[in-house]
Design brief:
Blueprint (H helix, E strand, L loop, with lengths): L2 E3 L11 E3 L14 E3 L24 E3 L12 E7 L8 E6 L4 E2 L1
Antiparallel strand pairs: 1-2, 3-4, 5-6, 6-7
Length: 103
């Protein structure tokens, strides 16, 4: 993944640099590593709006990410880099030598 720079044709494109997402995996995520994600719409457990102007958007599924890195002595390789709509970073699909997949 590289950074895409723009020619200063207009004032808004003078400092514009975006991430080129052409190298990301274009398929669906691994089904065993995802779960449903419900939207709150800015409402708390009483049903009252606590954050205004939140709602709508595209349907999302939550990717279960192994933040603890539980496998210590098993070698793993990066299979692909995927887009994650729930965070600002991309995520990597790791395949361990024992056959287990993890984000």
């Amino acid at each position: 993944m590289a950074l895409k720079k723009f020619n200063p044709i207009t004032p808004s494109t003078r400092q514009l640099v975006i991430v080129d997402r052409s190298g990301l995996y274009k398929g669906k995520p691994v089904k065993g590593l995802t779960e449903g994600l419900t939207k709150s719409g800015g409402r708390n457990n009483y049903g009252r709006i606590t954050a205004r102007f939140i709602g709508g958007g595209h349907k999302r599924s939550y990717r279960i990410i192994d933040f603890k890195r539980k496998k210590y002595d098993v070698v793993g390789t990066v299979e692909r880099i995927e887009y994650d709509p729930n965070r600002t970073a991309f995520i990597a699909l790791i395949k361990y030598d024992d056959g287990e997949l993890s984000y």
